[in-house]
Every structure is written in structure tokens, then in C-alpha cells.
Amino acid sequence: MMKHRFAITAVLPCIMCGGCGLLTSDEPPVEVIWLRSPSVELEQDTIPQGSLKVSLQAVPGLDTDTVLILDEDARMRRHASLRWQEHLPELFETLVSHALESTRLYEQVMTERALESANRTLMLELREFYIVTSDSSDPVVHIQLAGQLYCEDDKHSIKAGSNQTVTGDGDIAQAFQRAVNETLQELARNVQPSEQHCRAAANEQDE
User: Coil, helix or strand for 87?
Assistant: First the structure.
């Protein structure tokens, strides 16, 4: 028993020493930006019908959990101390599904990771999700989405995006959240008329 106690006592200084080394590191601490999905209210009330599966992919370079910065000379770099709560494709796919779920357009909204099948499929590509910097102006958050809503044998183009100015280092998280809110609200407003066309076409076929 004494041997075990000695071993534990001997290890503790090593752990504490390693901890001290971490605390005195020159690297900045990593902070996680926790983006949230807005609740979207549509102008026209609709009856929830069917189900929707959201599938999202990111263009090369955006499949990361790091906040990205695009410099004026077209060089992409990573923010030293800011991260997302998840890799962007999975994160934004979840944000989109939650926003569309709040519209009550559908009885069920799910992500691509769900095993169930759905009546509709919204396939999106995340084309921009970074801060653009310039020597002559304030940094600006850019978000851009594009894709298609598939229903039966038809498809409808869907686009949404937002640019939000970053007023200082402390405004980065808020600027991204503002851009996410505006992008997802625009996305929902664009999905609604496309979904109405899908339902109208389905009703004509049934007649």
C-alpha cells in the first residue's frame, strides 16, 4: 500500500509542473464562439406539412472549427484564439435545421445525419464564412449560402447571405451572430415560396 501512495505522490509534482508550464505559455487561450439559431417567424401563416432533410457541405477550406480571416491579398489565415463549437458543415447544418423548424413550415426538420427519410431535401453549400480584412476599412463578416430545395421531380434555387461589420475585437462573436441571424431569416423567407410551389404542384397532380 505504501508503494502505491508513494507513486501517486511522485506523479503529482509532475502534473502540477506541467500545469504550471501551460499557465505560463505564450500562446493565447482558446475561446469557443457558441453560435445560436434564431427563431424565425414568417409573414404568412402556413400549416406544417411533411418533413424536410437539410444537407450542407462547405467549399474547400471552410471545413474547420477555426475562425478564418481572409486578408486583402487573398491569403486565408486562422484566428489564433477563436474556435467554433463544431466543424462548420455540421454546425451550420444544425443551425439551418433549427431555424427552419421554428418556421413551422414542416412537421419535422432533420439533418443529413438522421436515418429517417423526408418528403423534401434542402441541399446547401456554405460558400463564405469568414472575416474579410482591409487596410482601408473595418473588418467585415461574410456568410454566403446557396443550394436547392428538391421536391418530387422539381427543384428550386435557394440563396441567402449577410455581411456584418466588426467594430472591434470584442465584436467578432456578435458580428458573426448577427450575420447568422440575417442569413437564416433570409433563407427561411426564400424556402417558403418554393415550398408553396411544391405543394401546389403536388395538389395539381392529385386532381
Answer: coil
